[in-house]
Amino acid sequence: MQGSSKATGDAAETRALDYLEKQGLVLLERNYRVARGPFARGAEIDLIMQDPEATVVFVEVRARKNRTQGGAAASITLTKQRRIIRAAQHYLMRWPVLPACRFDVVTLEQDDLIWLPGAFEAVV
Fold this sequence. Notes:
Layout: H1 2-22, E1 26-34, E2 43-50, E3 56-64, H2 78-92, E4 101-109, E5 112-120
C-alpha cells in the first residue's frame, strides 16, 4: 500500500505545482529533505517556490480521498509545521541575504484543490 500512497502524494504534488506555476510562482526545489539522525525523523518540504515579488514560498501539499477526520488541512499538526520550518531554516542557510518567506498549504480533497497562502508562520 505504501507504493500507492507515494504515487498519490506524487500526483498531488504535481497537480499543486502545475496550479501554482499558473499563478505565477516559479519552482526552486521539489522534495527538499533534511536528515535528522538515526533515531529522529527528518524534515521535508514538498515544494519550494518563489512568487513574483521574490518571496520564497515553502509549500506543504496534502491529499485526502475524503473530508473525514478533519480533512487535509487538519492533518498538518504543530509537529509537522516544526519539521517544515526546520527544513526551511536549513534551506535558507545557503542564501547570502534572507528573502521574505511564507508557508503555504495546498490541499487536494476529492477533486477540490485549495491553496492557503500564509497558512502558518515560523515562530522564532
